[in-house]
From TrEMBL, chains A, B:
Protein's recorded name: DNA-binding transcriptional MocR family regulator
Protein family membership: Belongs to the class-I pyridoxal-phosphate-dependent aminotransferase family.
Pfam family, one: Aminotran_1_2
Matching CDD domains: AAT_like
Length: 450, 450
């Protein structure tokens, strides 16, 4: 079982477990929040999906094969010899000043003017989201998320016992009208929203990007409603078509708390992300970080800073961008060639993910075991909702497998879908009825295939 | 302001802050837990204490100058070249299997027989404690701690809105009688204890160690009361006198959750600790870790594993032990030479800390600014209590400064205390009355000086 952020192709651990059948003697001692922590039903399946013969279009792991290992290796050796006794010591709870300065330089590429003093380093942006939620959310507090939203964020909100309300999206991302409606419903219910969590660029899992106009509309609503926004931007620098769009944070520094990470532009294994937050929030974040970890990994911070100093990291991001563009192209071509009629998808302009809609009657979660048997894996859309929606959708990722494997994966997926469709025609019982509700799953507006 | 785990001698950040006087516009949005997160009053003072002219006996930073930087540097370079694409990638939420195997070998030195499957890697043992508390504690839940207890643990319990009850100690650590009484009082109040947090070996801050007999008594009470124990053991391998005593976990694998760390036996900057927990708890811990960070720092895990493989780490621990023993000896000699009559302290058999009691009428917290002015720093005893006790005590650490600096520090401290005592004799108003309550501060049983 690999428990990386998302199902991945890392070697699975030995499947033999001891005492698997033992009862949990501690169950009556757990906190209320712990009873909501259960391993997902698809977890076991992904252990199988990690086998090399399976093409996994499920994982969210970046492809870091292009990183210059010789440069990083020498850089880290020199780091240990020159600064080892500082880099291996405890550090600042807020994060090392020289890294926070470099982070401001990185954010500058997306139009953000920030002071290093307002940056808090975190254990990946996942921990940034955990700490922000810790600061703001009591059990029962309402958090708004896109429909669909990042599975790891939904896990954090569940851990803090938040009530998640999904807000609909369209081809330009989060829908302003849906946001207004959601706020109005909550106002009528007398519930206050603690924040809106959004991924404006190259959305995970929906693959869409908020236009600049859309961003300004969302911010106008936020200002009117005094709504705090959490902007999660792991993929912003990995766009294929043009310069990055202005981040929400670059347009408003008071209502936006910004989450960044080096996981996709450098490497995830150092676990270095950050939160850029208004000063008062930043002070609380540092106290929360000290309570959570004393300080984020110091050696990792020095390692990332050394990489940024010793390597052409801007050039490296361009290399990554071209590599992911090629994979995106392979996937879109593969989908057009192999997916049956009635499927829909969008063409992401960056990032890692394509969001695929299935014909009526098919159920992505129900068919997953059959797909894995056919040696292809994906994440069913239901993972990205807290409310049971998404069964007619799946997230495909093109970040990790080679273009050839991606195309082979879409071919296998097409076969599975054709069989499912045939079954459905014959028996009419393969999938559940289409979901309907306040926040319908995002559906690509133009079926790319008739 | 350095925000390492404890006041340290790392260079302070530039004191110039922007918008320091701005009001907190977010204050009415915070969670209830966040209102309890406030920077300690002594924090600003420690920024001053970090100046080189001040002898800081306040910090808990290990002295890692003896680490072989050439070995570590080459080891990490080879790691990047050989395994860089795995070590810099996402990893398992539970932690890397090869490191968990090595952790079991390390724990074997303290009598623990464990399976790697029951180990969860954490961002230092601080995060271990955070995750364990997250699993078990709802707001208002009662947690038992020693009197005094580790300041970082008290911070975690506060962050989870626990009710901390202190349990008295004597020269052999946590008092069984005090524990029985505390349990009885809580039983009468109808309150259930979620767990007892204890540091059996070389206690932080009290410096005492539970004898083997004492450990068995505590476990017997725990079994009778069905009380879960959290054993925090950062210093267990750093004893000066004999082989490590059996850990609580080696005597009971069902009621003890064990926290370990490489921060004191190797280096804290990698932020690698671990939790050894019964299987059912471990499963929840991994889910909590995934929610908190996706996975603990992968590169750090590979780095620690490479160090354990490439270096005589057992020999290195012996080197550390001798180095700390010499510093302990310097501190005890300095205290005997310089502290005024009426002071008490114990002679720790390992670890980093000496717990000093002051003569009646003196207040360690009130006199701290005067001590820092006299260029010596310590942590006032009140930091180690949640209930206001401890004002007549201070924690001195001998881990970081050289023996010469330690002796100079005790000399300066002696001067300060003499002046305080003279003031008290003249005016009688220097300190508060002696505290009294259910869990009196631990006081060394034999004054080491008349």
């Amino acid at each position: 079982m690999t428990s990386s952020p998302e199902p991945s192709s890392r070697p699975a651990e030995p499947p033999v477990r001891r005492r698997d059948t033992r009862l949990d003697n501690y169950v009556d001692r757990y906190a209320v929040r712990t009873h909501g922590m259960t391993a997902s039903a698809i977890r076991a399946l992904f252990a199988v999906a990690n086998r090399p013969e399976v093409v996994s279009l499920a994982g969210g792991m970046p492809n870091i094969t292009d990183l210059p290992l010789d440069v990083v290796g020498s850089s880290l050796q020199r780091l240990v010899l020159d600064d080892g006794r500082v880099a291996m010591q405890y550090g600042s709870g807020q994060g090392e000043p020289m890294l926070r300065e470099a982070i401001c330089e990185v954010m500058g590429l997306e139009g953000i003017a920030a002071h290093p003093d307002d940056v808090t380093v975190t254990v990946g942006s996942q921990q940034g989201l955990d700490l922000v939620t810790r600061l703001f959310c009591d059990p029962g507090d309402v958090v708004l998320c896109e429909a669909p939203s990042y599975v790891g964020a939904l896990g954090v909100f569940r851990a803090y016992q938040c009530e998640v309300r999904h807000v609909g999206m369209d081809a330009e991302g989060l829908s302003p009208q849906a946001l207004r409606e959601a706020l109005e419903v909550l106002r009528q219910q007398g519930k206050r929203v603690k924040f809106l969590y959004t991924i404006p660029s190259f959305h995970n899992p929906a693959g869409v990007t908020q236009s600049e106009q859309r961003r300004r509309e969302i911010l106008a609503i936020a200002r009117e409603a005094d709504l705090l926004l959490i902007e999660d931007n792991p993929y912003g620098l990995l766009g294929f078509d043009h310069e990055p769009l202005p981040t929400l944070r670059s347009l408003d520094s008071e209502l936006v708390i910004y989450l960044g990470t080096f996981s996709k532009t450098f490497a995830p294994g150092f676990r270095i992300g950050w939160v850029l937050a208004p000063h008062a929030v930043r002070e609380k974040l540092v106290l929360a970080q000290e309570s959570a970890t004393l300080c984020p990994p110091v050696f990792s911070q020095f390692a990332v800073a050394a990489y940024l100093r010793d390597h052409d990291w801007r050039g490296q991001i361009k290399v990554f961008r071209e590599m992911y563009r090629e994979r995106r192209d392979a996937m879109i071509a593969g989908l057009a060639d192999h997916l049956p009629a009635g499927c829909t998808w969008n063409t992401p302009a960056g990032g890692f993910f394509v969001w695929v809609g299935l014909p009526a009657g098919l159920d992505a979660q129900a068919m997953l075991p059959r797909a894995v048997t056919a040696r292809v894996a994906y994440v069913p859309g239901t993972a990205f909702y807290t409310d049971g929606f998404g069964s007619r959708f799946m997230r495909l990722s093109y970040c990790y497998p080679t273009p050839e494997r991606i195309i082979e994966g879409t071919r296998r997926l097409g076969e599975v879908l054709n069989r499912e469709a045939a079954l459905h025609e014959t028996f009419g019982t393969v999938g559940p009825a289409d979901p309907a509700g306040p926040a319908l799953p995002y559906q690509a507006p133009r079926p790319n295939q008739s």
